[in-house]
Design brief:
Elements (H helix, E strand, L loop, with lengths): L4 H5 L18 H26 L3 H18 L10 H27 L3 H8 L14 H5 L4 H12 L4 H8 L3 H16 L3
Length: 191
């Protein structure tokens, strides 16, 4: 049979890494050979397995490294009779990726504690009170005109919409928006 150049380049099934080695690796030399073959021929497949779970490429590469470390430490427990080396390795890579997500989630949960929990941990001695006079808010508000101050009070403290302020004060809507913006710009100069 004559093969075309296209057919010659198609990899044959299980040519890169045999489905099962005849003997489970019991020596360090056999284990290192399996690990080298796995890395050379199938690291991209393992990375793809991890990317399904962890979409950030750089993080997935770090997890792949951790997976190979775990595979290396357990290569002597691989049993060729139970599964193919690639399948066994994909399961380990999958589990390492899941473990990474769980660890990341538990770290985030510890960082994102509720305010009430933090207050209970600190106790009553450490109370936090916000004093607007401490930042000079009264002095800053004195820089605003009475019209701007009245509009800001309705908008921010009373919860009125722009349209409701315009109706209440009988001022055009565009003027309300302009006064709010100029008041904010004036206050922002001092922060």
């Amino acid at each position: 049979m004559i093969l075309t150049s296209y057919q010659e380049n198609i990899p044959k099934k299980h040519t890169l890494l045999p489905g099962a080695y005849p003997v489970a690796p019991k020596t360090a030399l056999n284990g290192k050979k399996l690990l080298n073959d796995l890395y050379r021929n199938h690291s991209s497949e393992l990375l793809f397995t991890i990317l399904k779970i962890i979409p950030q490429y750089e993080t997935a590469q770090d997890v792949l490294h951790d997976a190979f470390l775990k595979i290396d430490s357990r290569i002597n427990t691989y049993d060729a009779g139970r599964s193919q080396l690639l399948t066994w390795s994909k399961a380990i890579a999958h589990n390492v990726a899941i473990d990474h997500l769980r660890l990341k989630t538990s770290r985030n949960n510890k960082l994102n504690q509720s305010l009430e929990f933090s207050q209970n941990q600190l106790g009553i001695k450490h109370s936090c009170n916000f004093n607007p006079d401490g930042i000079g808010l009264k002095q800053l508000i004195s820089l605003l005109s009475t019209q701007q101050l009245a509009i800001l009070e309705l908008f921010y403290y009373e919860g009125y919409t722009h349209e409701e302020i315009a109706e209440t004060l009988n001022i055009p809507l565009g003027t309300i928006k302009t006064r709010i913006r100029t008041a904010i710009i004036t206050l922002r100069k001092f922060f």
